[in-house]
Design brief:
- The chain has 2 domains: 1-40, 3-Layer(aba) Sandwich (YefM-like fold), CATH 3.40.1620; 43-88.
- The termini are far apart.
- By secondary structure, it is an alpha+beta fold.
- A 3-stranded mixed β-sheet has the order 1-2-3.
- The protein contains 4 helices and 3 strands.
């Protein structure tokens, strides 16, 4: 996988667009840190590519929530604890 800086993307964009179909993906960096992914697509696979990208983002969001829950100790809740939380929220909503 090829890495390129924002500066390279700006200054050598014609070369980047030419290489992208062969590379398939490129990581764009800013100050050495990854900030974006360029992925080659074509008219015949745009919907599938978009769906796969959205699915990957959703999976990453779920993983982030799981990590956050574990960091706060919420992964140790029992079903009774969860049911009590749901009941409390519903009671508060009905007010």
């Amino acid at each position: 996988m090829k890495f390129l800086s924002v500066r390279d993307l700006r200054g050598k964009s014609a070369q980047v667009w030419k290489e992208l179909p062969k590379e398939r993906e490129m990581i764009v960096t800013s100050n050495g840190r990854p900030i974006a992914i360029l992925a080659a697509i074509n008219e015949s696979n745009i919907e599938e590519s978009l769906a796969a990208f959205r699915q990957a983002r959703a999976a990453e969001a779920v993983l982030s929530l799981q990590r956050s829950s574990m960091a706060r100790g919420k992964d140790k809740l029992t079903m009774e604890d969860i049911d009590a939380q749901i009941k409390a929220v519903r009671k508060q909503r009905n007010r």
